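<backbone_tokenisation>
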Amino acid sequence: MKALITGITGFVGSHLAEYILDNHPRVDVCGLVRWRSPKENIEAILDTVTLHQGNLRDFPSLRSILAEHKPDIIFHLAAQSYVDFSFIAPIDTLETNIVGTCNLLEVVKQLKQSEGYDPVIHICSSSEVYGQVRADEIPIKEDNPLRPASPYAVSKVGEDMLALQYWLSWKIKTIRTRMFTHTGPRRGEVFVVSNFAKQIASAEAALADPIVKVGNLDSVRTFSDVRDAVRAYWLIAEKCQPGEVYNVGGTETMTIGQMLDKLLAMSTLKGIEVQVDPARLRPSDVTLQVPCVDKFYKATGWKPEIPFEKTLADTLEYWRKLLCKSPRCLEKV
């Protein structure tokens, strides 16, 4: 069996590749990469995965890769995934996420019609598609109205609906997930848990003032670990039904401020100041995200296994180790 991961060099893609290699050794893992994609996240597995250069926006490159290699499962994770950047660059976000996904699905459709190629395609949507929900809509179910509150969320609605349409129209075997907040080691520094962890680790190493700059701390999120998330993604392809959509999320619900308190309690440096940075406040925000994952649980039996305290501790330790390799840190040694 062959599995193709778009976005294999990213946060989730790299963890998914490791999970498959560790738990399903008979699966050949390959990834779609741009020529400039950084490889740090997959350094440990470069000898055990196959990388194919291409681009979601470039239809011929996708067709060439899929026509030659014909993976049995496609995990479509590649995206412009930073909500704040989508307000700055909405067109880039929409083109990457919607047009890129459409290119992928259209290639599969053409190859199915010409050669009978018929893979399972996991489309990674997002809980952001639900937007700002009402209190009486908690926990959020898959049939909740979609009220996207950012260009990123709009792009994920587009991906989500394209995947459904290609199933309804051509029986392309798409399965959609709406993943709620997930984090862990390797998460990009622009995302909230990782950003706070980096600021704390920087202060501990005396690379920055003992200050954590924050945005809205009152937003409520349900957190899960990326290593639980990728286990869920494998089960999606293995046990779930084409054409369906599934919420996936953890069980640890708290405000962003409560999450920050947990991180600060893990720091070796006491007395770190918390400052609100107006630049970190979004034009429109999603402040209440608590999922109902009953549908996914019934289909797969999946449950989160990693305590959130471990997720936070591992993320903080990741940044401590990474910053210790920085030139500024080495100068202090």
